[in-house]
Automatic annotation (TrEMBL):
This is Phosphate transport system permease protein PstA. It is a multi-pass membrane protein. The gene is pstA. It is found in: Cell inner membrane; Cell membrane. Keywords: Cell membrane, Membrane, Phosphate transport, Transmembrane, Transmembrane helix, Transport. It comes from Aliidongia dinghuensis. GO terms for cellular component: plasma membrane.
Length: 284
């Protein structure tokens, strides 16, 4: 009895130690997150004014905004999402519904996991060699293709996970009615997993919205308004990087404003994605 009490007390001490270390680690993480958000709010709010959304990036010492950068980022994000999402969904569908654990499916899943954790700058270098070097110049299309490649592994992984959660009883019931395999996938599996798949797409959009390094190798930047995707166009992450490193206070102020905007956009996308996932789980 005494040994059992001593063992119980020892386990309790270990539990309190692990709990204390976990709380300390959580506190450290929350402190730095709060410090970053505080700095963004303090420095960024001063730059939030109507001209930020209506004027082009200025020359040093002049008033201006981030209109061309906001437009370029929105266009490249939309094109990257439109190109990458169908590929990711189809790859995930093959792995989850058709490969059934064969070697090809396992290889695809392994490569996808590697791409998911690969540094984005490597993807930028790949597109640089594939598109920028042969074309001889930077372009919005090259930047969009970089973002599309970054979207694919996120959407693929989410599609595989969400389709794996669909009960086999639904597939078997549809198959018993003579429904072909492709119809079961589209009408039964996609419908059951659509909330989770949509959440994955939004998380992918949130990820590519703040990418900077791959765009430096593919689209570079543009000081002026441009809608020509065959030429360099401005993008918000690259402008933030360039302006933040400059010695000009007005450029640094715009960089803080852009950083605040991009943080709020990513925060809204994540909250929307989590809300959709929660709504889907409650509905099921």
């Amino acid at each position: 009895m005494a040994k059992d009490l001593a063992r119980y007390a020892r386990r309790q001490r270990k539990n309190w130690i692990v709990l204390g270390l976990s709380l300390c680690a959580t506190g450290v993480g929350l402190f730095f997150l709060g410090a970053i958000l505080y700095a963004l709010l303090v420095e960024g709010i001063a730059a939030i004014r109507p001209s930020l959304f209506t004027e082009m990036t200025p020359a040093p010492g002049s008033d201006g905004g981030l209109l061309n950068a906001l437009f370029g980022s929105a266009v490249m994000t939309i094109v990257g999402t439109v190109v990458g999402t169908p590929i990711g969904v189809l790859v995930g569908t093959y792995v989850a519904e058709y490969s059934r654990g064969n070697k090809l499916g396992q290889a695809i899943q392994f490569i996808n996991d590697v791409l998911l954790s690969a540094p984005s700058i490597i993807v930028g270098l790949f597109i640089y060699q594939l598109m920028v070097v042969p074309m001889g110049h930077f372009s919005g299309w090259a930047g969009s293709m970089t973002l599309a490649i970054l979207v694919i592994p996120v959407v693929t992984r989410t599609t595989v996970d969400m389709l794996a959660l669909v009960p086999n009883a639904l597939r078997e019931a549809a198959a018993a009615l003579g429904t072909p395999k492709w119809r079961i996938t589209v009408s039964v599996c996609y419908r059951a997993a659509r909330q989770g798949m949509l959440t994955g797409i939004m998380l992918a959009v949130a990820r590519i919205s703040g990418e900077t390094a791959p765009l430096l190798f593919t689209v570079l930047s543009n000081q002026f308004w441009s809608t020509d995707m065959n030429r360099p166009i401005a993008s918000l992450p690259v402008v933030i990087s360039n302006f933040a490193l400059s010695p000009y206070p007005d450029w640094q102020r715009l960089a803080w404003g852009g950083a605040l905007l991009i943080t709020l956009a990513i925060l809204c996308l994540n909250i929307t994605a989590r809300s959709l996932a929660s709504f889907g789980s409650i509905k099921q």
